[in-house]
Amino acid sequence: AAGGQLAAALRELAAGVAAALGGPETWDASSLTVAELFSRADQPDRLRPLLLPFERWRYGDHSPDGEAYAAAAEAARPFRVAS
Q: Which residues of the chain are modeled with pLDDT < 50?
């Protein structure tokens, strides 16, 4: 995101959350939609700030702005693996 590639960064956030919910191969191997993958979360509604801009970008070709990306990153934060 720091380089201004918000859509790519948003995709990586979604992929990371999907992997946290379903395992490392989930993003590439699952036939489920992102919404279906996110529904596996304990509180799936908390992922809406990530899901909605992802779907707008993926299906509507609307790149996220900084505000949408920040909200998405915050929604994804609990799923990040500490390194």
A: 83
